[in-house]
Amino acid sequence: MLPFSSKKRVSILVHILGWSMLSTVLLLLSPLGWRIDIPDEYWIKQTFLALLLVVTFYMNMLVIVPKILLKGKPILYITIIIIAAVCFIGVLIYFEELIGLPELMYKAFNPDKIYKPGPRRISGDVFNSLLFLLSIGISTSVASVQKWQKDEALRREMEKQRINTELSYLKAQINPHFFFNTLNNIYSLTNLDVKKAQEALLKLSRMMRYVLYENQKDETLLKKEVNFIQDYIELMKMRLTGNVKLNISIDEPKENLVVAPMLLLPFLENSFKHGVSSQKECEIKIKLEVMGDTLFFETRNHIFPVHSDSPEAKENGIGMVNTQRRLSLLYPEKHRLKFGKDEANNEYWVNLTINLA
User: Fold this and answer.
1) How far apart are the first and last CA of the chain?
2) Can you give the residue ranges of the Signal transduction histidine kinase internal region domain (predicted)?
């Protein structure tokens, strides 16, 4: 919290110093060189002008640019700026007339002449318009740079999270225990069913290829992700006893849908880690549906305790935290994740919906 607060204080100080310097240069230095007795109303008007510029700057930087220009609506943005410029000059003219500034300034420059209302000097309005455009230009630049910095920080965070997640999965979810246990099961199968052993070896090979190559990418075809989890389920079946019932329903996805790789695996791994017992009857339900561009994924399993100090329990915690973080980074406002325990049936359930459009 301390570094953040320090940065915030420095930012506020920079803004204050910036406006002080701009006000001094543009609004004070030139009038002080006129060598006339400037009326107080003029300084009131200059203060009002400075406040208008401040309001314009922050309104554009904090509201108009983020909500309109950076949302891909340049024509609407230009229209709003033109209308705002007209209102800006109109408000200034009205304020000057309200405090009687034109007459006071005429008398200050021409003390021996009688004031007669005439055409308004356009040069003052042009100068004020340039000040308005300067405020708009600087605030637009600041907002754009802030957006770029935010996007760059998010990109770096996502890249860091992807690497951390990849390492976590390689160490925890697809760990040497799983790999070698599966190889041992396949070895045992070679004496009983050579064809089934060959199929299992092919599935394991596909899985490891997916982990090594597809996981290097930000996105992969949903079809490949589905094939990966199907291979994972098939290999896990080799380790299950007859008292474990699997209820699997997986749709065939469309060819063009893409998803972050290995996003669904932690939920599957969780089901097989906590939902399997060698003595009691148990059931694991896995359901994946695709409707249009929306992915619906659901798991449900009985709960059998894992020792809190065991490596598996710790790895599971890391995997779930990483997955939630990945979802928030990759699919902000485009996903819904719900999970919990059904105490009545001693079951753990996960419900995930992702808009992949």
Assistant:
1) 37
2) 166-241
